[in-house]
DNA sequence: TTACAAAATTAGGCTCGGCTAAGTTTCTAC
DNA sequence: GTAGAAACTTAGCCGAGCCTAATTTTGTAA
């Protein structure tokens, strides 16, 4: 009721800042200037400047030398972008023949240009999905998002049977590599062996057995599964 | 082969200027500063400034106090935008349930954000159409466009049988009004009566007879038709 | 032809969102 | 506790793209 009052349209830059800050502070931490700068590929002074402006617009709160946290309004914007991004990704994969490793860039630009109405139509066409092709949860039209806690594959004990739920990267090369093992969200995986010191991890999916590195295993967020692989 | 060399990404503003200049100079005229300003809803000095920059970028040629004409490169950009805009409109109407009077705004923003690849996929999904929902020709992937000369309905003689080919407006209200008479591209229309001094025009489409004003009749671009209404 | 109006440009200023260089503050290690 | 490193902010600059006000050029009409 009171959220739609001040509607100066936000710039692409502002939307990108808020998205990154949301991601960095999701775990309850504050987001640091240098982290924001790194993720946006900007210099720290640029971030300092923008943070000041966003703080004046009441989109975030800034404690100098400490970090920033989004306000409710800022979080709302970030969640709107998240919803747009993920629905666009799902739509491109579902209706326009895109591969899951190929949608990120496209969505990254489109999310700033689509209207709320178009997002609604895409979501309807998809049957209002709760997750995008990478398993990331999609905020609903009221921006409610259900972030479940999953366990990275690299922390699963040998013998355990798990289901891949999310693949936590948007890098095309990694996504392609992961897809080449069939490790899409939904896949059942049994952990066979795990070497110490970030060592290789042996898994079984269906008939096949694979050895993957620690770095990749970190990206595969899993839940304990019932049933057989 | 040699067109893809200098690829500084163009800004949204630049793309909009080139689109408008293309439209204004399509008839072989030069585009005037004030016409450009009016169509972009900017002031004349703003246009003067941008024209200088575009001229330095070799996207157009400017004769001070006379007007501007696009270079081949500038025309290429404009045609690319035209293709994007019209394919997006066709896709929104064809696949996402948009009404033809409702797609312009959406396309106006999306055209700056879509990749060439996405446009190709949309075009493929549509079967590479030659015209958009308003009957406007869509440049093909090589940016070839076939602009046929049509006659506005207001210049048709009584008794003549014509076919509506293009509806030359993007204003939603006018489009809805025109659609309410069923005057979509493809419709056969017989001209019954035409009053002088920009007076009303009586037409018959199928069983129905309508009287429309001169202003609307100007927007209905027609070709002489064979067959019966 | 000349005077005035219309059109276009130049001058100068503003915001946004980047940058580098130069301080400040905070953290860490001894 | 203090020195140095790391993180952050401030100062000051820049270009894009808009603006208003002032000036110049062009077109027109007496």
Give a quick rundown of the structure:
Chain A has eight helices and eight strands; from the N terminus they run αααββαααββαβββαβ. Chain A has 229 residues and is α+β, with helices and mostly antiparallel strands. In chain A, α4 crosses α5 (104-110).
User: What Rg of chain A is obtained from the alpha carbons, in whole angstroms?
Assistant: 19 Å
Order of helices and strands of chain A: HHHEEHHHEEHEEEHE
SS-based structural class of chain A? Answer: alpha+beta
Range of helix content of chain A? 25-40%
How far apart are the termini of chain A? 48 Å
Q: Please give the oligomerization state of what you see.
A: homodimer
**Quantity of strands of chain A, as a count:** 8
Q: Describe the biggest sheet of chain A?
A: 6 strands, antiparallel
Number of helices of chain A: 8
Summarize the largest interface: chains and residue counts. A-B, 18 and 18 residues
Strand content of chain A: 15-25%
Task: Strand order, main sheet of chain A: write it out.
Answer: 3-8-4-5-6-7
Mean pLDDT of chain A: 92
Principal-axes shape call of chain A: globular
Which residues of chain A sit in consecutive blocks of at least 5 with pLDDT less than 50?
Answer: 1-5
Sum up the structure in keywords.
globular; 229 residues; 40% helix; homodimer; 8 helices; disordered N terminus; DNA-binding; alpha+beta; two-stranded antiparallel sheet; six-stranded antiparallel beta sheet
Explained architecture:
- Two copies of one chain form a homodimer.
- By secondary structure, chain A is α+β, with helices and mostly antiparallel strands.
- Helices cover 40% and strands 17% of the residues of chain A.
- Chain A has eight helices and eight strands; from the N terminus they run αααββαααββαβββαβ.
- Chain A has helices at residues 12-24, 33-40, 44-56, 72-95, 104-110, 116-126, 172-180, 214-219; strands at residues 60-63, 67-70, 151-152, 161-167, 188-194, 201-205, 208-212, 220-224.
- Chain A has a six-stranded antiparallel beta sheet. A two-stranded antiparallel sheet of chain A has the order 1-2.
- In chain A, a hairpin with a 2-residue loop joins β6 (201-205) and β7 (208-212).
- Chain A is globular, with a radius of gyration of 19 Å.
- Residues 1-5 of chain A have low confidence and may be disordered.
- Chain A binds chain B through residues 92, 95-98, 105-106, 109-110, 112-115, 117-118, 121-122, 125, and chain B through 92, 95-98, 105-106, 109-110, 112-115, 117-118, 121-122, 125.
- Chain A binds a DNA duplex (30 and 30 nucleotides) through residues 11, 13, 32-34, 42-50, 52-53, 64-66.
């Amino acid at each position: 009721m009171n959220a739609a009052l001040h509607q100066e349209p936000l710039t692409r830059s502002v939307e990108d800042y808020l998205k990154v800050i949301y991601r960095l502070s999701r775990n309850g931490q504050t987001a640091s200037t240098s982290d924001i700068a790194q993720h946006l590929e900007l210099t720290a002074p640029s971030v300092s400047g923008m943070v000041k402006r966003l703080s004046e617009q009441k989109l975030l709160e800034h404690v100098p030398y400490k970090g920033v946290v989004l306000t409710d309004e800022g979080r709302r914007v970030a969640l709107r972008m998240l919803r747009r991004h993920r629905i666009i990704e799902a739509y491109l994969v579902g209706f326009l023949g895109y591969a899951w490793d190929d949608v990120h860039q496209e969505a990254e630009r489109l999310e700033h240009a689509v209207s709320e109405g178009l997002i609604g139509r895409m979501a309807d066409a998809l049957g209002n999905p709760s997750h995008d092709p990478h398993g990331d949860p999609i905020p609903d039209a009221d921006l409610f998002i259900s972030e479940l806690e999953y366990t990275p594959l690299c922390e699963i004990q040998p013998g355990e049977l798990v289901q891949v739920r999310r693949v936590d990267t948007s890098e095309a090369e990694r996504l392609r590599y992961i897809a080449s093992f069939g490790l899409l969200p939904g896949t059942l995986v049994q952990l066979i062996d795990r070497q110490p010191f970030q060592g290789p991890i042996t898994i079984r999916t269906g008939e096949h057995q694979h050895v993957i590195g620690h770095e990749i295993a970190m990206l595969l967020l899993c839940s304990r599964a019932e049933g057989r692989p």
